[in-house]
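name: query_chain
kind: protein
chains: 1
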Amino acid sequence: MAKNTQTAFDTASLKAHLAKMDAEDFWDKKGKKITEDFNTSKESVGKLAVEAMGEISSFFNKLSSTFSDKK
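structure:
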């Protein structure tokens, strides 16, 4: 029983180590591109958010003017 447990621990440890190595290789190969894509997306989302805020602000200003004109 103890030998089976040790074998299971050794196997799990080896798999974890191999997974870590695979992750490092993946990041070395594609990390720069992923980072660039993320930064591009972040800028696009930021611009869209600013545009949306402008549209929302304009809508509420028009709505406020409508109510002010009716007084």
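note: The helical segments are 2-69.
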